[in-house]
Design brief:
mainly alpha
């Protein structure tokens, strides 16, 4: 009961930042909460089980839940357009999932390449899709603990690379502006056109990055 209480309090604290300008720490905390939710959604979709999240990990609620829903929807569109890019990522990168260092280095290298030419919400969504795809690989290969490593790794990347950009936009809630029509069957959003060409770029990265791992 105490664990549930602490989790609820932490989640409430995460939510309060949407009413004011978020700090770097809050943006990173939200990024990790969104990542856990995104990964969990993808694990459920492919029918694989995962160990319980950390006791104090916030569960998206309120405004953050809306952000998570939008992020997942845009991710659906992205993966619908280029499904092979976000599946079997470990095999595409030719890496071992038994080494935390290898997984971390590979993820950060791909993340850095994604944002080489600038930051957009489409690329942020792609970052989450990569994290989730890699997490699915880890669980399928009996390395569920690596999921927490990926979440932490994404949080660190957000801290170093995306926080300033997110602050200029008022935080994660800005992503909700990307979707006007709430019909989940609609695939005419700007993201579709934006990631069509980007999908080819990302796939090329997978095949040339860390070939000796």
């Amino acid at each position: 009961m105490e664990v549930l209480r602490r989790s609820s309090v932490f989640a409430a604290e995460v939510m309060e930042v949407f009413d004011r300008s978020p700090t770097d720490k809050e943006l990173v905390s939200q990024a990790k909460a969104l990542c856990r939710d995104y990964i969990n959604s993808r694990l459920i979709r492919v029918g694989v089980s995962w160990s319980k999240p950390e006791c104090n990990a916030p569960v998206p609620g309120g405004k953050l839940a809306e952000v998570s829903t939008i992020l997942l929807r845009l991710g659906d569109e992205l993966e619908y357009i280029r499904p092979n890019v976000y599946r079997n990522i470990a095999r595409q990168l030719n890496i071992s999932l038994h080494s935390e260092t290898v997984v971390t280095d590979a993820f950060l290298a791909v993340a850095a390449q994604i944002f080489t030419a600038g930051i957009t919400w489409g690329k942020v969504v792609s970052l989450y899709a990569v994290a989730a795809g890699l997490a699915v690989d880890c669980v399928r290969h009996a390395q569920p603990a690596m999921v927490h490593t990926i979440v932490d790794c994404l949080g660190e990347f957000v801290r170093k690379t995306l926080v300033t950009w997110l602050k200029r936009r008022g935080g994660w809630a800005d992503i909700t502006k990307c979707v006007v029509n709430t019909d989940p069957s609609l695939r005419s959003h700007w993201l579709v056109a934006a990631v069509c060409s980007f999908g080819h770029f990302l796939k090329a990265i997978f095949f040339v990055l860390l070939p000796e791992r």
